[in-house]
Amino acid sequence: MSAPTHTRPLPPVRRTRATAASTRLHWWAPALPALAFGLLLLLLAGSGEAHAATGEVSGLVQVAEQLLRAVG
């Protein structure tokens, strides 16, 4: 047996004209995907020049080792 439900009527919807400022995108909305696409394209284009590691320690590894020595 179902019980009766009491619902409130919805308030009236105010229809306002959209202003140019409310419909405009922020500058970073199209810029970030374009930047990400460009960076990924550069990564793909430069991957043909990749070489195997020669056993030399990179600069990033050297900095990390120095930080670990300083902290530890």
What order do the helices and strands come in, and which of them pair?
Layout: H1 20-23, H2 28-46, H3 59-71
What would your notes on this structure say?
It is a single chain. The model has no long low-confidence stretch (mean pLDDT 79). 50% of the residues lie in helices and 0% in strands. The protein has 72 residues and is mostly helical. It is built from three helices and no strands. The protein has helices spanning 20-23, 28-46, 59-71. 0% of the residues are buried.
What is the succession of H and E elements?
A: HHH
Number of strands: 0
Derived from helix and strand composition plus strand pairing, the structural class reads: mainly alpha
Mean pLDDT: 79
- The rough form would be described as elongated
Helical element count? 3
- First-last Cα distance: 72 Å
Strand content: under 5%
The largest pleated sheet is described as: none
CA gyration radius, whole angstroms: 29 Å
Low-pLDDT segments, ≥5 res: none
Helical residue percent? 40-55%
Quick description:
By secondary structure, the protein is an all-alpha fold.
List keywords for this structure.
72 residues; 3 helices; mainly alpha
